[in-house]
């Protein structure tokens, strides 16, 4: 919003701006989304004072100060005043009580100066209307109270200097631009520090996730060794079964072969599950590596950091799911081993029964007489 060159800021501070609800006349409605610059402006040609505040390109305060206006402090950090011309009540919320007190003192000072004004006219005898004859246009306002106040003496000296010169000096413009650059630099540094902290947190989470995946991989290797031992034990049982086939009857052999086939199928199923789990772990590690590369390349992008956090959460859930599946696989392997041991025991029992049967047949009287 660009103001007329004859209007110059004489005091600037920051505050949250509110307006009274035009319907209820009781509730406050926020006019600004954040704390914005609120400034006193002096018009040297009209000898008038205004309070102006702009957010973006929208003027949210345009209030001409008259001798009858009163600024009321309603709480420790909040104050208000009524503007009959705008037909509204403005409210300001400050960061500290000291900022509110300075604004009140400046309001009283400007109001006293307005009382000394013989009348508001535009030089042609017609009443002055700040909205009709002096429109407000969007322009950057001074956003630092300390930098403006440090360049002022008292209010009357400032008014006299502005009324005689009509334009800000080069020194004032340079200080004004310098203050704006300082504010932009401070905000940029704060945002960079915030993103740096978020990026470091994300990297720490990635490191913990990598450690968990490595531990899971180590567990998979251990389970592979156990599975190899089970296979070896199964081979021994198969060999024993082949030996039993030479002495056992056909029915018993058929039953043992069926049990052996089922056990072999169970082992194959366990091996397939293990291969599937190993592949999922490899995929998770690959995605993690891709994620780390993306984090390093886009560490200062806040939106991308949030996406990475979501992806990390998904990976954590995936790791938890994989660990659960691995535990189930281990339980299934233990169960299979137990079944193999039971099968081995059953085969031993059957073998003993067959041996006893042969012994009985060898000592049977009828067989002995026939041999004789």
From TrEMBL:
GO molecular function: G protein-coupled glutamate receptor binding
Keywords: Coiled coil, Cytoplasm, Synapse
Species the sequence originates in: Lingula anatina
GO biological process: G protein-coupled glutamate receptor signaling pathway
Main location: cytoplasm
Gene name of the encoded protein: LOC106155062
Disordered as annotated region, ranges: 114-166
Chain intervals with Low complexity compositional bias: 143-154
Cited SUPFAM superfamilies: PH domain-like (SSF50729)
Subcellular location: Cytoplasm; Postsynaptic density
Name of the molecule in the record: Homer protein homolog 2 isoform X2
PROSITE patterns membership: WH1
InterPro entries associated with the record: Homer (IPR045027), Homer_EVH1 (IPR044100), PH-like_dom_sf (IPR011993), WH1/EVH1_dom (IPR000697)
Coiled coil (residue ranges): 178-339
Family: Belongs to the Homer family.
Domain of life where this protein originates: Eukaryota
Start and end residues of each WH1 domain: 2-114
Transmembrane spans: none
Any one of the GO CC terms: postsynaptic density
